[in-house]
Predict the 3D structure of the following.
Amino acid sequence: MSFNGEISDEVKASVKNFIFNELGFDSDLKTQALIFDSIVRRDKNLAMFDRYRKHEVKNHSVSMSYVKMGLAINDDQHVAQFDLWNKHVNSVANLQDVEDVGFFWAITEAKIRREGSAVLLGSNFVTPTLEVSEPAKATPKSEEEAADKSTSETSKGPWSKMIGK
Protein backbone atom coordinates (compact mmCIF):
# COMPACT_ATOMS: atom_id res chain seq x y z
CA MET A 1 0.00 0.00 0.00
CA SER A 2 1.20 3.54 -0.64
CA PHE A 3 -0.12 7.04 -0.07
CA ASN A 4 0.47 9.84 -2.48
CA GLY A 5 -0.24 13.45 -3.31
CA GLU A 6 -2.00 16.31 -1.63
CA ILE A 7 -5.16 15.23 0.16
CA SER A 8 -6.73 18.56 1.05
CA ASP A 9 -6.07 22.25 1.36
CA GLU A 10 -9.37 22.80 3.20
CA VAL A 11 -8.23 22.25 6.79
CA LYS A 12 -9.13 23.55 10.25
CA ALA A 13 -6.77 22.63 13.09
CA SER A 14 -7.75 22.36 16.75
CA VAL A 15 -6.63 20.63 19.95
CA LYS A 16 -8.89 18.24 21.85
CA ASN A 17 -8.46 16.36 25.13
CA PHE A 18 -8.78 12.57 25.03
CA ILE A 19 -8.14 9.53 27.16
CA PHE A 20 -5.77 7.24 25.26
CA ASN A 21 -8.37 4.44 25.36
CA GLU A 22 -10.60 6.61 23.15
CA LEU A 23 -7.83 6.54 20.55
CA GLY A 24 -7.37 2.78 20.58
CA PHE A 25 -4.38 2.66 22.93
CA ASP A 26 -4.70 0.70 26.17
CA SER A 27 -4.13 3.46 28.74
CA ASP A 28 -6.32 5.51 31.06
CA LEU A 29 -3.96 8.48 30.84
CA LYS A 30 -5.16 11.77 29.38
CA THR A 31 -3.64 13.38 26.30
CA GLN A 32 -4.14 16.34 24.02
CA ALA A 33 -4.55 15.54 20.36
CA LEU A 34 -4.12 17.77 17.37
CA ILE A 35 -7.23 17.50 15.22
CA PHE A 36 -7.40 18.46 11.56
CA ASP A 37 -10.91 18.88 10.13
CA SER A 38 -10.40 18.54 6.41
CA ILE A 39 -12.50 18.33 3.28
CA VAL A 40 -11.20 15.40 1.24
CA ARG A 41 -12.53 15.67 -2.29
CA ARG A 42 -12.82 12.72 -4.62
CA ASP A 43 -11.76 14.84 -7.60
CA LYS A 44 -8.60 16.09 -5.82
CA ASN A 45 -7.16 12.70 -4.81
CA LEU A 46 -9.33 9.70 -5.66
CA ALA A 47 -6.91 7.15 -4.20
CA MET A 48 -6.75 8.80 -0.77
CA PHE A 49 -10.46 9.59 -0.80
CA ASP A 50 -11.14 5.87 -1.28
CA ARG A 51 -8.57 4.84 1.37
CA TYR A 52 -10.28 7.05 3.97
CA ARG A 53 -13.70 5.79 2.91
CA LYS A 54 -12.50 2.17 3.29
CA HIS A 55 -10.96 2.96 6.73
CA GLU A 56 -7.47 2.09 5.44
CA VAL A 57 -5.76 5.23 6.79
CA LYS A 58 -4.53 4.24 10.25
CA ASN A 59 -1.64 6.68 10.95
CA HIS A 60 -0.95 10.37 10.54
CA SER A 61 2.02 12.64 11.08
CA VAL A 62 2.59 16.36 11.42
CA SER A 63 5.55 18.56 10.63
CA MET A 64 6.31 20.30 13.90
CA SER A 65 8.96 22.22 15.77
CA TYR A 66 9.69 21.54 19.40
CA VAL A 67 9.59 24.82 21.33
CA LYS A 68 10.26 23.44 24.83
CA MET A 69 11.82 20.03 25.40
CA GLY A 70 14.22 18.28 27.69
CA LEU A 71 16.02 14.97 27.96
CA ALA A 72 14.62 12.89 30.84
CA ILE A 73 17.00 10.17 32.09
CA ASN A 74 16.33 7.53 34.72
CA ASP A 75 19.73 7.93 36.38
CA ASP A 76 20.38 10.03 39.48
CA GLN A 77 23.95 10.67 38.25
CA HIS A 78 22.36 13.19 35.83
CA VAL A 79 20.59 15.46 38.33
CA ALA A 80 18.66 17.81 36.01
CA GLN A 81 17.66 15.00 33.61
CA PHE A 82 16.65 12.75 36.51
CA ASP A 83 14.49 15.55 37.94
CA LEU A 84 12.81 15.85 34.52
CA TRP A 85 12.31 12.05 34.48
CA ASN A 86 10.60 12.15 37.88
CA LYS A 87 8.47 15.13 36.88
CA HIS A 88 7.07 13.58 33.66
CA VAL A 89 7.46 9.78 33.75
CA ASN A 90 3.99 9.18 35.22
CA SER A 91 2.47 11.02 32.24
CA VAL A 92 4.09 8.73 29.67
CA ALA A 93 1.57 6.45 27.98
CA ASN A 94 4.14 3.93 26.74
CA LEU A 95 5.82 3.67 30.14
CA GLN A 96 7.28 0.19 29.61
CA ASP A 97 9.11 1.39 26.48
CA VAL A 98 10.76 4.34 28.24
CA GLU A 99 11.61 2.26 31.28
CA ASP A 100 13.29 -0.28 28.99
CA VAL A 101 15.51 2.36 27.35
CA GLY A 102 15.93 4.54 30.44
CA PHE A 103 15.25 7.91 28.84
CA PHE A 104 12.75 9.94 26.79
CA TRP A 105 12.37 13.40 25.36
CA ALA A 106 9.84 15.42 27.35
CA ILE A 107 8.16 17.72 24.82
CA THR A 108 6.24 20.35 26.77
CA GLU A 109 5.53 22.75 23.91
CA ALA A 110 5.45 22.27 20.15
CA LYS A 111 4.07 24.08 17.12
CA ILE A 112 3.00 22.99 13.67
CA ARG A 113 5.53 23.93 11.02
CA ARG A 114 3.78 23.18 7.76
CA GLU A 115 1.44 20.29 7.37
CA GLY A 116 -0.26 17.13 8.50
CA SER A 117 -0.05 13.93 6.47
CA ALA A 118 -1.51 10.48 6.18
CA VAL A 119 1.38 8.01 6.58
CA LEU A 120 1.79 4.26 6.47
CA LEU A 121 3.63 4.17 9.79
CA GLY A 122 3.95 7.26 11.97
CA SER A 123 6.48 7.89 14.71
CA ASN A 124 3.46 8.28 17.00
CA PHE A 125 1.30 5.22 16.41
CA VAL A 126 -1.72 6.68 18.27
CA THR A 127 -2.90 8.79 15.31
CA PRO A 128 -5.89 6.95 13.84
CA THR A 129 -8.74 8.20 11.72
CA LEU A 130 -11.62 8.46 14.20
CA GLU A 131 -14.59 8.89 11.94
CA VAL A 132 -15.60 8.63 8.30
CA SER A 133 -19.00 9.91 7.27
CA GLU A 134 -20.82 11.63 4.48
CA PRO A 135 -21.96 15.24 4.76
CA ALA A 136 -25.64 15.86 5.43
CA LYS A 137 -27.69 14.98 2.39
CA ALA A 138 -29.86 17.65 0.85
CA THR A 139 -32.42 16.90 -1.80
CA PRO A 140 -30.69 17.65 -5.13
CA LYS A 141 -32.42 20.07 -7.47
CA SER A 142 -30.90 18.57 -10.63
CA GLU A 143 -29.12 15.45 -11.89
CA GLU A 144 -25.85 17.43 -11.96
CA GLU A 145 -26.25 18.37 -8.30
CA ALA A 146 -27.09 14.74 -7.44
CA ALA A 147 -23.87 13.57 -9.17
CA ASP A 148 -21.85 16.19 -7.26
CA LYS A 149 -23.33 15.07 -3.90
CA SER A 150 -22.20 11.47 -4.54
CA THR A 151 -18.55 12.55 -4.44
CA SER A 152 -18.52 13.58 -0.77
CA GLU A 153 -17.40 11.85 2.39
CA THR A 154 -16.21 12.76 5.87
CA SER A 155 -13.60 11.22 8.14
CA LYS A 156 -12.12 12.22 11.54
CA GLY A 157 -8.89 11.41 13.29
CA PRO A 158 -7.29 12.65 16.49
CA TRP A 159 -4.51 14.32 14.67
CA SER A 160 -6.83 14.56 11.75
CA LYS A 161 -10.58 14.74 11.39
CA MET A 162 -10.58 14.22 7.65
CA ILE A 163 -13.76 15.31 5.93
CA GLY A 164 -14.21 13.95 2.47
CA LYS A 165 -16.18 15.68 -0.26
